[in-house]
Every structure is written in C-alpha cells, then in structure tokens.
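forwarding from the other thread:

> can someone predict this with adenosine-5'-triphosphate?

sure thing
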Amino acid sequence: MRLSNILKDMEYDLVQGTLDQDISEIIFDSRIKQTNSLFICISGFTLDGHDKAEEAIQNGAVAVLVEKDIHVPNGVTVIKVENTRNAMAKVASNFNDNPSDDINVIGITGTNGKTSITHFLKSILNEANHKTGVIGTLGTVIDDELIPTNNTTPESVDLQKFLKDMAITDHDYCLIEVSSHSLQLKRVAHTKFSTGIFTNLSPDHLELHKTMDEYFEAKAQLFTMTEKANIINADDIYGQRLIEQLRDSNVKTLTYGIHEKADFYASDIEYSLEGTSYTLHTPFETAKINIHLPGEIYVSNSLAAIAAAYSNGIAIEAIQTGLANVSNIDGRFETVYSSGNFNVIVDFAHTEDALQKTISILKPFVKGNIILVFGVYADMSENGRDKRYGMGRVAAEYADFSIVTLDNPKNHDIETIMKETTDAIERNKGKFIEIRDREKAIQYAIEISEQDDCILLAGKGHETTQVIGDEEIYFSEKEIVQKAMETKVFQ
Ligand SMILES: CC(=O)N[C@H]1[C@@H](OP(=O)(O)OP(=O)(O)OC[C@H]2O[C@@H](n3ccc(=O)[nH]c3=O)[C@H](O)[C@@H]2O)O[C@H](CO)[C@@H](O)[C@@H]1O[C@H](C)C(=O)N[C@@H](C)C(=O)N[C@H](CCC(=O)O)C(=O)O
Ligand SMILES: Nc1ncnc2c1ncn2[C@@H]1O[C@H](COP(=O)(O)OP(=O)(O)OP(=O)(O)O)[C@@H](O)[C@H]1O
C-alpha cells in the first residue's frame, strides 16, 4: 500500500523523505527482517524503539514513524506523530482497509468473565447462523480455527490483521476480549465497536494502573468507542459508576444483574454442580435458560451475553439453544476428574474475587473437604502484597485445606511470594502446607484426599506452561491429575 494511503486521516509531520512509495508491512520490532517495511518506534517500558530504528532500517525498513526526533540516513522517510502507539493503531487499520467498518465488533472488558462471555455469545450467534470470530485469552478463532496468541488483546498491528482476515472470510461478528492493558496501550484504538460489555472490576493489573481509579478509567475508555449499545453489570459497584458516567451518552445503556434492578435479570435460579437453570427477564419477555456451568458468576456472564445478543436482534430461541450448547470452557470450572462424590476441578481463578466466588460455588455441593491448590502471580509492589494477602485470606476463610504453591512467578521473588501468602493464611487461621513445586503440590492434594472431597486447582486454568524466572516449562494440570489418579486408592 502507498505510504500516503497508510497515513490517511492522520495528523503527522513529514520530517524527511517521501510518502510516494509502497510499503510491504508494518512492524514494531526492529529484529523482524522485512524489505520495504514501515517501522514504528514505540517508547516501551523496558527500552525505546527509537534506539532500534537503525537496526530496523538494516533489516529492510524504508520509513519510520516516530514521536521523538531521531537521525537516520537521508533516503529513509521519517514521519513524526504525537503518540506512536495511537498512530500505530490508525496505520494498522488503514493498512488493512479499516476492517472494523465491515464487521460487527463487540468488545468485552472487566477483570473476570470475558472469556466465558465470548464463549456464550459465539455459541448464540452461531446458532443464529452468524459467522463469528473471537480474539481473546484462549487465542484467536477465525473460521473455527484456533490461532494461538500471546496476549488477551493483541497489538494493533496483529489485531487489525485478524479483523481483516475475518472480514474477507465473511464473518458477521468479531468478539474481542479487551484488556485494560490494550486500552491503556492503544491496541484497540481506531477500532469501531458496535457494542461494549462491562463485567466487573476487582484488584488486578495494578502493576500497570497503580490505583483502582486508573484501572477503572482505562476500562471505561471502551464505552466511549461504541456505536450501538453499552451493556453493564449493575451488580458491580464499578458497573454502577460506569452507568452513572454514561448517563449523557448517545449510545444506549443496557444493564444486567441478579441482585440490583436491571434490564436483563434472572429469577428462580436453581444451582447444581453440573449447571444452572433460571428464568430470564428481558424488557420484552421471559424465558427459561439452562447453562452447563455452575454458580452465580455464570448466571451473570450468561446475562451479559444475552443482553448483547438481544441488542443485536437475536431471537430468544437461538439464545436458549446457543447457551445450552456450551458444554465446557477450557480451564473455566473444568472437571478434569470425577468419580462418585470426588471431583478435581481446574479453574482460572487468579484474583481474590474470582477465588472467593469459585470456592463459594463448590461449598454447597461438597460433602467432604475442599482442598485448594493455588499460587499468586503479582509483582513485588504494595499492590502485589495486597493481592497475596487477599488470596491467602480467601484460602483460609473458604477452603478447608490449602496447598500453597507457585503460579507463574516469572522473575518475582519466590521467598516473598510464599511468605506473604502463607502469612495471610496463618493470620486468618487457615490450615495449609507449602509445596513450591506445583506438580508435587497437585500430587499431594490427590494423596491426602478422601472420597467425598473436592480438589480445586486454581490459577492456571487453560495454560499449558509454567513460567519460572525466564524459563517456560510445559505444564498440564489435567495430565498430572490423570496420572496421579491412576494409582490413587481411597481409604
Ligand atoms: C506490560 C506490557 O503490556 N508490555 C507491552 C509493551 O512492552 P514493553 O513496553 O516492555 O516493550 P519494550 O521491550 O520496552 O520494547 C519497546 C518497543 O521496542 C521494540 N523492540 C524491542 C526490542 C528490540 O530489539 N527491538 C525492538 O524494536 C518492541 O517491539 C516494542 O515495540 O509493549 C510491547 C509491544 O507493544 C508488548 O508486546 C508488551 O506486552 C507484553 C508481551 C505483555 O506481556 N503484556 C501483558 C502484561 C499484557 O498486555 N496483558 C494483557 C492483560 C491480560 C489479562 O487480562 O490478564 C493482555 O491483553 O494480554
Ligand atoms: N463474573 C465473574 N465474577 C467473578 N469472577 C469470575 C466471573 N466470571 C469468571 N470468574 C472467575 O474468573 C476466572 C477467569 O474467568 P475468565 O477467563 O472468563 O475471565 P477473563 O476476564 O477472560 O480473564 P483473563 O483476561 O485474565 O483471561 C474464572 O475461572 C472464574 O474463576
């Protein structure tokens, strides 16, 4: 594409060179070899892409997009903008023919629940014969093929490429899990969203946002980018704040909830470990809903999907069948072993709120003990300490016995993680043991378990690796459980 077209509808200064040339690719990593590319210099957290422009040029870049002054050889075009992350999103959209103009994009944000909402909604939309793609934590799904991705919300260059692939393969909808990182770092800027969904906000990612107010404001940005409807959880205090904030918005707000007054709500809820049924109330009708996931959080998440489907004109029959068709979601309350009353469940609960809610789902159905295996992923800051304390407290108060282990410690200090988490359990009078090796921790849980117990492996969910230091090792909780159960004998 011509460089001048790539820069369409943007404000910029042409510092040197010409816009009259063809660009083959947009890149933001200088190590990528690509002739005739446009290199975008990002001022990162660890290094400055402006210092890498020379390497990018050696690797084939013929133009660079900057937000600071740099010196490069005369033949190279230099374009200066105010913010290269924001400009990168616009350039990526232009380069891919602005694909969000051609596809109905629904963005889902909030600390927890995004992944299950995308599953519920995709199933509903498929049932209504709408081809639907997904971009989220479990990867990108185009034409029902899973493309693994590193981040929940990819960088704009990749995101716009995925949207274009969906647009040219006649997808009607794209469901995007929109992380707070992606909003703050402009990964979804210049994407047209028809609908936004807000689930909830509880402490997480404070290494980036520092305060809950900043975290909330990052999430709230999505609801200024929507054109059709904003769907908000009325049960969440930050949801209430958002509803208030959107009072004068031109975009329609629809609310959902179980406890607070809302446009879409549930009554007559019947829970079992296998699933949940309830009566759905919409502004127009009532209907019976059955889902194969247990507990209040999935009632809430399904209500969000229902409200989004409704606001896009989907009939109730497709909603009912679509929801009933979701039998399980990778690593979300997934039973990986079951025999009689004994169950081993893998769940992605990795925040205090999610852990508390997930153990609470189990409580009424477990005759014996709830044995919890968990670790805490958080940085070394005060916010990280609060997370370790919070998850330790929940373990003490809600589980019968905890095995404290490692999540993905990455380069964080393991001694501090273990000490602060176990201190919190002790202070809250919980019973626990510390086993740092997660595989051994799981094996121990199985060894001590009895016939009526339930083991909850929390925090890693769908993940198939564990990151310790700079090393990423293969790690499958399902396989570990299955192997350990082969030799298990109940007393
Ligand atoms: C904290 C964070 O979000 N970091 C993002 C940030 O990294 P950074 O600022 O450290 O990058 P950097 O290493 O300083 O490099 C700056 C620039 O120089 C470039 N570079 C770097 C090295 C080099 O040799 N040459 C070069 O050109 C890099 O490509 C980059 O453009 O900018 C990078 C490029 O845009 C992102 O890939 C990176 O995401 C990393 C992979 C990441 O792990 N992010 C996580 C925390 C994240 O985004 N998570 C959210 C939330 C998930 C959830 O909800 O749980 C997600 O959406 O996944
Ligand atoms: N509505 C909810 N409220 C609180 N916790 C929830 C809710 N929905 C799911 N959870 C918990 O959060 C965990 C993660 O859920 P899910 O993967 O849907 O969230 P997410 O928003 O996609 O998170 P991430 O971006 O970290 O993947 C679940 O395994 C469950 O323990």
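Residues 334-485 form a domain with the Protein-Tyrosine Phosphatase; Chain A fold (CATH 3.90.190.20). thats all i got for now
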